Amino acid sequence: MGISPGRREVIRLVYFCPEIGAARKKIEGEYSMALKKIGFIGTGVMGSSMARHLHEAGFEVSVYTRTKEKARELLDMGMKWQDTPAALAAGVDVVISMVGYPRDVESVYLGEKGVLSAKQGGYIVDMTTSSPKLAQKLYEAAKEKGVASLDAPVSGGDLGARNATLAIMVGGDEAAFKELLPVFQAMGKTINYFGGAGSGQYTKMANQIAIAAGMLGVAESLAYAQKMGLDAQKVLETIETGAAGSWSLSNLGRRMLKGDDKPGFYIKHFLKDMRIAIESAQEAGMELPGLKKAKELYDQLAERGMEDKGTQAIIQWYQG
User: Could you report the per-residue pLDDT of 281-295, keeping only the tens digit for each?
Assistant: First the structure.
């Protein structure tokens, strides 16, 4: 679980030096607290990898998803299945969700058989990209049950989830964030706390705003290179080393050129994120013209029936 070399040496000394047995008990207590039972809701493109990393890190993981067969690979690894969010919540210390839309988040936590109908104490962590207002609503509802609630959306897509290199943006009580840091470290690489409930979601909106305009730039650049008769792959390999370089160009740009539009992140979910960002900006009296243009083009792809494609499919708008 990411134990540093220095701490590993401390543990070795404690276990082989009888005169500091008291320290041994203290360390054992710390690690028994860290090894929690975790319930994971949502085993889609990203959630399945995230749950797997938690399992491999030594946590006891139970899962729930609307279609049990989608969790078959995780169950075969030894994870446990629960039939409802409430049943899942009753037997774990931490519930983590990675679902599709704010309505799904509200249902799994506040529904009739939702997490908060059964959970007393412990933690809930919604890692879905969702509404900051909903994150604040969940925080208050959880607080009434003695449950600590964190909003912790992620960035990095399917590759980040698969490689446990996600960026994780956390809002809620800082004490809860510190307690659950080992959980986050099993799934991500860049993990930062931003403030009270909703702060993680606001940070994710800033992330999505940056990505949206960037995706148009990547697609326009490569489509332009193709139109001018250039070797677009060579263009990409050249410009990614300079000021134009970005994660989207190096990773999704390559998928664009291969015609690979399989979803690492669905267009339909990106549209949801853009709507949330635009609405929250308007509530603050701010306009986001770049984001609105990106949403306009992605809306047109959705109208063509492409909402289940990956966001890199935006190049097809330029290709006709």
Answer: 999 999 999 999 999
